[in-house]
Design goal:
The complex is a heterodimer. By secondary structure, chain A is mostly helical. Chain A is 70% helix and 0% strand. Classes of the chains: A mainly alpha, B mainly alpha.
Chain lengths: 233, 330
């Protein structure tokens, strides 16, 4: 991409969101990715909480990067990240208790989410504050997008719902009603039998694997196209 | 004359066995159990078998066409997978479930890992496990027991052809009864003939034994795996409840089908002789543990899948040392 060019806010942001997506390209933060993605709202909530922590910790670590001695940087990162996670945890408990209850242990565990550590170590500690915010936003939203997608697929197939709404049942009923009205029939809407394994652990692994196949196939095809273009030029 | 001395690289001895031939023989060996299933459970069994086999073939064909791979549908391995999956479904299973299972077996378990010979778990068994976990009520509750004349499957079949009669009767499988500690209402004869509840291809023990022994005699399946598997289960139950209990256990559930046809899958069982014995014993022990102590009434598929995953490790530790090689230290 723009390797020779100086990184800008937009390029760093897009890098996190797409080209180095933490879930699909860097394979970071697999614990929450597999554990909590059983409902769309869980995925979205987890992603946004992580994004908030990531942006704040990236900013603070970037500001302090010339003050923190190299030797104790890991403990310093932990202190910074843990402070923000505690804030988010308390905020969620106070204002969105349902989400907090549903994510449970995984909110405090954002402290040890490797995305946040990896970005602190490999980006925020070496780059100025504005770029670090861009990186935090890009990586965080990339993570949010990935796990929300994963959650929606699992929720849809495994429970027949999307963000808690019984989408499949509604669609089936509406479709049957439409057919009945158009052709003067009296059909009974088929009942959707949710595939329970999708909301269990194996379903998480399998869905993630299939998504990775698709993402890699698309990005490989794009790379091939770009290479072909370069040869032509 | 001179051509006889042409230098060629090994192998010099070739057997006539091809994948296609082997798979055809497996189909042949599976046939008796399928016929028994259709006689015992009626037209729905035939329908499910047809749906599974067709879906397996079609999904393999489509996948290989879409990904532009060499089409290997004519090796009949998809047919075997379809048959095995169908035999592992209850005759009351809905058709859509058979379709989903077949697609999962071929695409997810077999083709995504590289096609025939590269899958690390048995496709049919994995699909069965997925279906079982997803729709356990549909997979196990309604065990269609053969109706009207319990000891006369032929009359039952004829009765089904005519109008009337009960279509499906649900009842406890022999394993449910056995695990509850009773052998009431069971006889070895009914277990052998398959006139009891269960999955559509696993009830008729005689048909499975005929097919399995045929495979072992033809050298297609290694006798060590089924022998070790069944032997281990027998010994465990012999010490737990005596010879009669052990015999009942051998003949009920999916043990025979699993031991002869699914544990012996080439790609997912060890390649060394000792490894195969270990594999069989491991399957037997796991099956015993699951049947006797766990919540599931039947553990054959999980036992085999578990040992499938352990296969690379077994191979590694039982690999024979080439003659003359010194044991490495450290």
């Amino acid at each position: 991409m723009a390797k020779n060019k100086k990184p800008t806010f937009l390029s760093v942001f897009l890098n996190g969101l797409i080209f180095e997506n933490p879930t699909f390209a860097l394979m970071l933060g697999m614990c929450p990715t597999l554990a909590i993605t059983i409902a769309g709202s869980n995925g979205l909530g987890m992603g946004l909480a992580t994004t908030a922590v990531l942006v704040c910790s990236n900013l603070l670590i970037s500001i302090l990067r010339n003050v923190i001695p190299d030797k104790v940087r890991i403990p310093a990162f932990i202190v910074v990240i843990a402070s923000f996670v505690t804030m988010i945890d308390l905020l969620l408990k106070a204002y969105i208790p349902a989400l907090s209850a549903s994510l449970g242990m995984y909110i405090p565990l954002i402290v040890v989410n490797c995305i946040i550590f990896a970005r602190a170590e490999s980006f925020a500690f070496k780059n100025p504050p504005v770029l670090s915010i861009a990186d935090g936003l890009g990586m965080g939203l990339g993570f949010t997008f990935a796990i929300t997608l994963l959650s929606c697929i699992r929720e849809l197939i495994g429970a027949g719902k999307l963000f808690g709404v019984e989408v499949i049942r509604l669609v089936l009923e509406a479709g049957t009603n439409w057919i009945n009205a158009t052709f003067n029939l009296e059909l009974v809407a088929p009942v959707y039998q949710p595939m329970a394994i999708m909301t269990q652990v194996p379903g998480g692994f399998v869905t993630l694997g299939i998504l990775l196949i698709l993402v890699n196939a698309i990005s490989n095809a794009a790379k091939k196209k770009a290479a072909a273009k370069e040869v032509q030029a | 004359m001179r051509n006889n001395f042409a230098v060629a690289s090994s192998p010099h001895l070739r057997s006539k066995a091809t994948t296609q031939r082997i798979m055809l023989e497996v189909c042949l060996a599976l046939a008796p159990a399928g016929i028994a299933g259709v006689i015992l459970f009626g037209w729905r069994a035939a329908l499910l078998i047809a749906v599974c086999v067709t879906t397996c073939i079609v999904s393999e064909l489509l996948w290989q066409l879409v990904t532009r791979q060499k089409v290997t549908v004519n090796d009949f391995s998809a047919v075997v997978t379809g048959l095995l999956l169908a035999y592992n479904l209850p005759a009351s299973a809905p058709v859509w479930m058979a379709v989903i299972g077949s697609v999962l077996a071929i695409i997810l378990v077999k083709q995504l890992f590289g096609g025939i010979g590269s899958n690390f778990m048995n496709p049919a068994l994995t699909a069965r496990a997925v279906l079982f976990i997803s729709w356990s009520a549909l997979m196990s509750a309604a065990d269609p027991a053969p109706i009207s004349a319990i000891y006369d499957p032929i009359a039952n079949f004829v009765g089904k052809l005519g109008a009337g009669g009960i279509d499906v009767l649900s009842g406890a499988t022999p394993l449910n009864a056995l695990n509850a500690g009773s052998t009431e209402g069971l006889s070895l004869m009914s277990l052998l003939m398959g006139t009891h509840g269960g999955m559509l291809g696993e009830t008729c023990a005689i048909a499975l034994i005929i097919g399995g022994v045929y495979l072992c005699i033809r050298g297609i399946a290694d006798w060590r795996i089924p022998a070790a598997f069944i032997g281990t289960v027998f010994v465990c139950y012999f010490f737990m409840g005596g010879a009669e209990m052990a015999l009942y256990q051998l003949l009920s559930g999916g043990l025979l089908l699993g031991a002869f046809f699914m544990a012996t899958d080439y790609a997912t069982s060890p390649i060394t002789g000792l490894g195969r014995v270990i594999f069989g014993v491991g399957c037997g022990l796991l099956l015993f543990v699951i049947r006797a102590f766990a919540n599931y009434p039947e553990g054959c598929s999980f036992a085999i899948l578990f040992m499938n995953v352990a296969t690379p490790m077994i191979d590694r530790f039982t690999m024979p040392r080439p003659f003359g090689e010194v044991k490495k230290h450290g």
